[in-house]
Amino acid sequence: MNIALSATPERRLRLSSQTLVTIVFLAPSLLLLAVFLLYPLVSSLRLSLLDWNGLGNTARYIGLANWAKLAHDAVFWQSLRNNVLLAVASIAIQLPIALALAVLLEKAGRGSRILKVLYFLPLLMSSVAIGVLFKQIYDPNFGPLNVALQAFGLDGLAKDWLGDPHFSLGATIAVIIWQNAPFYMILFLAGLSSMPAEVNEAALLDGASEWTIFWRIKLPHLQGTVRTAVLLSVLGSLRYFDLVFVMTGGGPEGSSEVMATYMYRTVFSSFQLGYGSTIGSAMFLIVITVAAVSMYFTRRYATEV
Amino acid sequence: MASISLTNVQKSYANGNAVIRNANLEVGRNEFCVFLGPSGCGKSTLLRMIAGLEAITDGELRIDGQLMNDVEPAKRQVAMVFQNYALYPHMSVYENMAFGLRQAKVDKAVIDKKVRSAAAALQLDTYLERRPAALSGGQRQRVAIGRAIVREPGVFLFDEPLSNLDAALRVQTRTEIARLHREFSEASAVYVTHDQVEAMALADRIVLLQAGAHMEKHGSVAQVGAPLELYHHPRSKFVAGFIGSPKMNFFAGTIVDGDDGGVVIDLDSGERVRACVDGSRARAGMKVTLGVRPEHLRVAVDARNEQTLASRVKLVEHMGEHSYIHAALTGPGAASVIAKVPGDSPLTHNEAVSLSLAPEACHVFDDHDLAMRRLI
Amino acid sequence: MNKKFRFPRVGIPLLALIWLAVTTIPFIFMVVSSLKSQEETFATSVWAPPSQIYWGNYAAVLKGPFFTYFRNSLFTVGVSVVVIVIVSAMAAYVFARMRFALNKTLFGLVVAGMIVPLHATLVPIYLFTRNLGLYDTPFALLGPYVALSLPVSIFILTEFMRQIPRELEEAAQLDGCSPFRIFWRIFFPLSGPGLATVAIFNGIGLWNEFIFAYMLTSTAEHRTLPLAIWDFMGQYASNIPSMLAVLVLTSLPLIVAYAFGQERVIKGMMAGSLKG
Q1: Which residues of B are less than 8 Å from A13 in CB distance?
Q2: Model confidence over A65-81: pLDDT tens digits?
Q3: What is the C-alpha to C-alpha distance for residues C144 and C146, in angstroms, rounded to an integer?
Q4: Right CATH number for B247-365 from 3.90.950.10, 1.10.3720.10, 2.40.50.140, 2.60.40.1250?
Q5: Do C119 and A280 make contact, defined as CB atoms within 8 angstroms?
Q6: What's the angle, vertex CA A244, arms to CA A239 and CA A246, rounded to 5?
Q7: Which regions in chain B score pLDDT beneath 50?
Q8: Listed residue (B170, B167, B176) closest to B145, CA to CA
Q9: In this predicted structure, what is the pLDDT of residue A297?
Q10: Do B88 and C168 touch (CB under 8 A)?
Q11: What is the Cα gyration radius of chain B?
Q12: How far apart (Å, rounded) are the C-alpha atoms in residues A125 and A179?
């Protein structure tokens, strides 16, 4: 900003009041972000170079040893794999469901209000509440799910959902989808309602069937929204923590471990702050990279929403 | 002292595109000055430079003698009426009009008096508590005007205030603006419009601005003068073509002979005509343009004693009191011509007609499109 | 041939009903089961309704420190949201309206903050919260809550303020307003809907926030509502209906608030998701 001295006093005054407001108004935000976002990210990188249990001055500088350890850490790669599976499930299962529901709600018009209200409920519960609730529901002996399955004679399907390594991840993912699908439903609904009604009407007059209208008109219109949804899904899946932590804690035997839970355990159960910070920083780098790459390669589909 | 004076004002953008070149003009006290011109000529930009909403690249702007180039809009004591009204949507009409005075820390009782008297002058007194959303377009525009009046500025600025109104409302509001300005004896007004009918009706003086090649060569200001001055004595072909509706007819031709008493021209369509202009600059063989307004062409009565143009009617527009004949000259080039004739004229499509033009009604523009001075 | 065209007509309403069941059954189970006594829970089938409505579970939970948790949530989220709204509105005004060299860059960086995984900031924030003596105090969560909500809030509000016509700003300038006045008298009031959106979106998110609350507080005296569930898990480990009562009680405030303004809340969540 050029605050050049000038002959007339009014000039300095003009630049001053704008500059002053700019600085004063931005300061609180930038300060808070620097302290709680920027500094921790940098500090985390710094901590990743240490071997420390968090107590006192027992920290030992070990260079990139933690990172080398990470590269060979089977548990970490397993957890990353689980994050990826979560992302795939989100895109392949959650988004289509959300889209179908949004299409339905948009067409149903007035009657949809009560449906919309009900569908929205899962978003209002805290993840802890949902986690504990579904732990109950998934209970192998008394949980309503297995009880119902047995009542229908499907005993074979009544598994130990959270306790069996084969099912723990899937069962957890199902709950994550239960929790988040309404969010994407609302997102798609917003995208659909931004489409002018006349386009739909013109297509109907042209003799198009509902199915055709959906594939040829509505879906292309939603390109930008779909792109947003996919990006949010992927990034959210990479960062996910709450429900996994509450329902399985990452077990059994790491079958449902995700990067965030692994990081948490490393720091707060194993007291390895250095290595834990490595995992945290690795998460950050992975997320940033994935975000940048995906946004770049899908920029063709970007629209206002 | 002039209320506003611009000296050699230029405006260009960072990429080098010039919008305003060499603008020199003065607006006197109580003068109603209209900035007129085609789109892109920079008239709104010039207005906003006076307001302080756009920066001046070069030159001087003075208001009441004070240099204002770098003064904040808030401190310039000018009031502006925007094309889209720019009313504060979350405030009532009263609040909208009082806002500026509140910023100036005027006493509450004084504010109340001023707002109410302005509202009364604009017939807004029953609407004072309403929000802009509850008003019609015409009412909103009046609130915008009221907001400006209440501040009693030295300069009123209007940025195409009537273009969002329907035709009838436009005429009505136009006369109100003229009336209000007469009542404010000290303030000057600068009014931007692209509508030359509006300009002719409202202006004490018109500043006609030009763009493109004209601007590059001659500067942004094509001509400044009273409306009738621009009408009768346009300084260039551009001015002649812009003022007057329908547009002036132009015919290409070559000078045969000329002196300070008149010129003789051979038109490309074959006719030889005389024009009452000062031909001292004319040379034989010079390529010129002859201009004559549709309202100055007549159907020839006595072909031998008048100079005429032979043409054939292509289209007749019946406007009621008068009609417009669209014709094409029968000579080489088939130049098109529009003539205004009485409404009961019997002329029909494809009819041959001789149009007569008096030498006194002719305009002549030289090979640089500049007008030769008319001798009447 | 017609099967392809029948599917959407039958399939989608069917899906809607299935999903309705999937969505509501867990809630119904939660509420109904919380109204059974512990004996009845073990004695009868999970799906059976209570023979009579038993409020004892709720009474027991409410006698405990439940209201302390509730109070802490109210304080923490209330203060955070107010600060977020003001601070982000100020920043949004600058990003939307002020012309200066670093505008686009800074805005990009701030918005990029939306992507950052919170876990990458956990350890350092935990460390300095502890070192500053703020650990397990009412103020421990305020800083992180406000700061981490800023990127998305600033993003939403900047978009919003960009929509305000430039002419209003110019009219205010000509009316003699300083930039600060223009913000306070024009932009802030006109951003009402945007501010409400930010308040709601963040309000819901922070009310249910878990990991930071879990990490930066330890005693019931200072913990927020989501932690109530965690803390009560030990106490009610085998008392399932009481546990469910806890779930109902902790979910109730938001659901009640939601009942009062569904459209607003839904719009709020929608806007939070609009990322370019």
Answers
A1: 72
A2: 889 999 999 999 999 99
A3: 6
A4: 2.40.50.140
A5: yes
A6: 125
A7: none
A8: B176
A9: 84
A10: yes
A11: 25
A12: 9
